[in-house]
Design brief:
This protein has helices spanning 2-7, 9-32, 37-61, 66-92, 98-124. The chain is mainly α.
Length: 125
Amino acid sequence: MEEYRLSNYAFSEQFKLRTKAFSVRIIKLFQALPKDAEAYILGKQLLRSATSVGANYRAACRARSKAEFVAKVGVSLEEADESQFWLELLVESNIVRSHRLQDIMKEASEIIAILTTIRKNASKK
């Protein structure tokens, strides 16, 4: 396990920054949402799940075992997928126009793909 983390240290640090930047973008999106009940409820769910992606990835990087690493990455992946769900609901409920969320939805998809690969590779070793 330790060997896995050390060999990918630069990637790990870069991905920590990327997931944190994703969280900041979601915070700014939440602040810009319309001030109605539906937007607030969906936005709050998105805020919770999106900020959890980076927090759980950071926890995975401090894992004490391979099993703990895989589990924490799995939680991060679940939160990223949930974030994508809330973004889709914001668009499909016409709270936010799709073109405004296009970039952040792409980022969510890329984070999901990366976390899926990390979990798959870590599970093999």
